[in-house]
Amino acid sequence: MSVTEGKKPIRCAWTGDWAHVDPLLVSYHDREWGVPTHDDRKLFEFLVLEGMQAGLSWLTVLRKREHFRKAFAGFDPEKVARFDARKMQALLRDEGIIRNRMKIEAAVWNAQALLSAREEFGSFDAFIWRFVGGVTIHHSWRTPQQLPAETVESAAMSRELRKRGFAFVGPTICYAFMQAVGMVNDHTIDCFRWRELAERTDP
């Protein structure tokens, strides 16, 4: 069922608590979550934001997202990789973002590690999508309770990223990243987006 057919679409249950008060979460669910993403800058954005989200709600991150983009140079990994101590101190004073020293430092380290992976594999996209064989894994979850917190693939990704100098990339964060960038389709099968994404012809 399409959202344009005039009927209220069925969405993943995690949108339910906020759908009536914050359209930001609904828009994210309908337009971004689970869409296969192959742009290095966009992949870096989600890697940073998923790390920032640890211990917080995703809605908190979404509400700060535009400010994050300004603070982190549009999530250009080449620019973020050059952030020095003075820049990081400025970020710690920036009320528009999540002011956590370890998370801010991790974003810079991850930019540097991403550039190294890009040099080796040609793109971060080529490197990161190897963990699902280059194509989206379409799950068929019927209830939210079935969704795992981590998988064999996210654990393997976490180990490799840590080995390469990435930080805030535990298996759970890696799985949330995989869900966000469409490496897995974790919409429940009653959600209108599950079928839309399953019928896509791109990876």
Description:
The protein has a single domain, classed as Endonuclease III, domain 1 (Orthogonal Bundle). The chain is 51% helix and 2% strand. It has 10 helices and 2 strands, in the order αααααααβααβα. It has helices at residues 23-31, 40-53, 58-71, 77-80, 85-92, 101-121, 124-128, 152-163, 171-180, 192-198; strands at 137-138, 184-185. 33% of the residues are buried.
Key descriptive features of the protein:
51% helix, Endonuclease III, domain 1, 203 residues, disordered N terminus, mainly alpha
Return the average pLDDT rounded to an integer: 93
Q: What is the fold named in CATH at topology level?
A: Endonuclease III, domain 1
In whole angstroms, how far apart are the ends? 22 Å
- Helix-strand category: mainly alpha
Q: What is the CA-atom radius of gyration, in angstroms?
A: 17 Å
Largest sheet: 2 strands, parallel
Number of strands: 2
By CATH, the superfamily comes out as: Hypothetical protein, domain 2
